[in-house]
Amino acid sequence: MSWDFTASITAGGRSSRFGSDKALALLHGRPLLHHVAASLQACPARLLIAPPGKYVLDGWTVVPDTRPGEGPLAGLEAALHHAPAQWLAFTGVDLPGLTPGFWAALAQARTSEALAVLPLDEADRPQPLAGLYRRELLPRVSALLDAGERRLRLAVPAEQCVFLGGLSAALRNVNTPEALAAVAAEHPDSQRQ
Ligand SMILES: Nc1nc2c(ncn2[C@@H]2O[C@H](COP(=O)(O)OP(=O)(O)OP(=O)(O)O)[C@@H](O)[C@H]2O)c(=O)[nH]1
Ligand SMILES: [Mg+2]
User: Fold this and answer.
1) Backbone phi, then psi, for 89, in 5-degree steps?
2) In terms of C-beta density within 10 A (0-12 exposed, 13-18 middle, 19 or more buried), how is residue 7 classed?
3) Which ligand 1 atom is the nearest neighbour of the CA of 94?
């Protein structure tokens, strides 16, 4: 598998449900942001969509939001705009179960026609916050935002998406301190790979 895609993590949220900055919350002694970044460390270019100076992440280029506070769809717009390669891995700070193997599986599922590859969660719903997106989506994403749309799941029409099952274990989403405690209890560090 070739790591020929750009990595991006969108980190411009308010963590209102978590109550403090969840990017910096510790899981097994490391910030959630570092868990996610580790899964994408093999990518040749790595973008962190965040306010300048807010986070220090070695080897990652900080890209400020073009529309601060407008949500992850705006984060995707900024990432697509700066992506040097055709394909972009796009994710958030709060999915600490992501692994290199997860991204390799998505990358292998790419087709020449697809504009995105998205994993399915345990209820078989696409999780747009941990996907591969093609750079050609930028005009569509900008048009959606200009029209007032903020739902990330509308970034790609379903018929231009490849959906991949069998990956839901990687998709635990930490939106609250209770969810973080549950992940810490369920996934001892020694079982991560
Ligand atoms: N760049 C950017 N990222 C965002 C923005 N809003 C949310 N995000 C990120 O999108 C990802 C998923 O969003 P949420 O889980 O809703 O995170 P959040 O908005 O910080 O949390 P809540 O306030 O509890 O909804 C996280 O990595 C957030 O940091 C934004 O305006 N800009
Ligand atoms: Mg979340």
Assistant:
1) -85, 125
2) buried
3) 27
Paired sense of beta strands 61-63 and 46-49, if any? parallel
3-state secondary structure of 109: coil
Give the chain's domains with CATH numbers.
6-191 (3.90.550.10)
Is residue 49 in contact with ligand 1, taking CB distance under 6 Å?
Answer: yes
Q: Residues marked as binding for Mg(2+)? A: 94
Structure-block tokens of residue 145 = 């935002």
- Ligand 1 atom 7, closest CA: 13
Please tell me the residue having the least CA distance from ligand 1 atom 11.
92
Structure tokens at 97: 């179960």
Q: Does the pTM exceed 0.90?
A: yes
pLDDT in the model for residue 74 = 98
> Residue 176 above 80 pLDDT?
yes
The pLDDT tens digits of the residues spanning 39-55 come to: 999 999 999 999 999 99
CB 117 within 8 A of CB 132: yes
Indicate if ligand 1 lies below 6 Å from the C-beta of 65: yes
